[in-house]
Amino acid sequence: MTIIASDARIADTKTYPRRAAVVSWIFFDWAAQPYFTLITTFVFAPYFVTHVASDPASGQAMWGFATAAAGLVIALLSPVLGAIADASGRRKPWIAVFGALLVIGSSLMWFGKPGDPSVIPALLLAFGIATIGVEFAMVFNNAMMPSLVPPDKIGRLSGTGWATGYVGGIISLILVLGFLAANPATGRTLFGFMPLFGLDPLTHQGDRITGPLTAIWFIIFVTPMFLLTPDYPAKLPVREALRTGLTELKGTLAELPKRKSMAAFLLANMIYTDGLVSLFAFGGIYAASTFGWHTIQIGTFGILLAIAGTFGAWLGGKLDDTLGPKRVITGSTVVLLLSIIAILSVDRDSIFLVKVAPPVPGGALFSGAAERAYLVLGCLIGMAGGPLQAASRSLLVRMAPKDRVAQYFGLFALTGKVTSFVGPLLVGAITAITASQKAGMAVLVLFFVAGLALLSRVKEE
User: Fold this and answer.
1) Can you tell me whether residue 43 is helix, strand or coil?
2) Is the pLDDT of residue 274 over 80?
3) What is the pLDDT of residues 156-215, one digit of tens each?
4) What's the first-to-final CA gap in the chain, in angstroms?
5) Which residues make Cβ contacts (< 8 Å) with residue 53, sequence separation at least 6?
6) Residue 37's closest CA among 385, 456, 355, 356?
7) CA distance 293 to 362
8) Is residue 245 a contact partner of residue 2, using CB atoms and an 8 Å limit?
9) What angle, 0 to 180 degrees and rounded to 10, lies between the N-to-C axes of helices 210-228 and 120-142?
């Protein structure tokens, strides 16, 4: 089959790359997902808060401030880089550069030893570098979507990508819990094994190895995309692309107020994405402190969430092409809103203010009624989070001008990140002021309510 040469030719001839190219592109999500699963959500972030920081509240606050700083950098540069990429044509060189930042930053997390406050500044800097790398790489990977499948299959492509990513996250988490991270009290992994490579449970080497593992995983599984997926053809040299891209970006920003539906969508995305990122970032941390969960409990929780997310993203992709992405986004946001309200009503020994027996020390996994309730709510969040993100990028592809896809994905990343520091910052600040993690989490309700209000003004074009 003829490889496409431009967006115009895609529209005219309806020719697309062969299946291997599409599958290789999908595996970018598989390659990148362990960073979010292992580092930002279920293993390293809770480890940092409970074992590196002096106490959980200050740890959550510092992690929130670092997340906010990385988000601000991403927000400021995403539209500019997207505009330059549209003008230059190529996507892969940008993915390679920012993928390298992900690899470097993740690898450095190995040095985050427990109880050593001197490593905290460098550790948070490495986390920021890796976060910037993975987020920018995703911007340019997303911008390749219109060249891969017909418009009526965009939703399925996006949903399949997210579902594949979740499967990659599940497998990486099982690998860590089953073979690398051990309970310090027993010295055994979830599967009852001694940790591979002689990893020391007492110094939490099984938690820290998630950084280098994420880096190696990304290098291995992103390689097929570079080898088999066709890139957009080169247009302009970098210097000329910089000038042209900035000019086009200025024009796009000037016309955006006239495109009311697109503007409303970008604002809605800005707000509900901030709530979702904050919920994922602090959900594992909140559970660790509320129930006293360690890596194995949090990791098992993460596996179940990822399984729910895989099913949700796959189903959401089908519903996207059938019902439209806006309906999928709205339904997912409602589920997230109700779930976070319910989570705030669950404590170690109570559910919706009704007293229940607390977890038995040394008892079976998730033996407490409140733990099981939190587990159910977490699975609902996992099922809704995947479709929300997949349908959002699908809706943008449908609404954006075809010759400025990367630029609009830059704006998409901008709106997803320009206030992304606000959610973690508010969670961190309110947690620090009140010394209450529950009070910090409560602010996320406002993000989903506001996102729904703005989404009601969006018309799919």
Assistant:
1) coil
2) yes
3) 888 888 889 888 988 998 899 889 988 887 888 878 888 888 898 888 899 999 999 999
4) 30
5) 59, 62, 120
6) 385
7) 11
8) no
9) 20
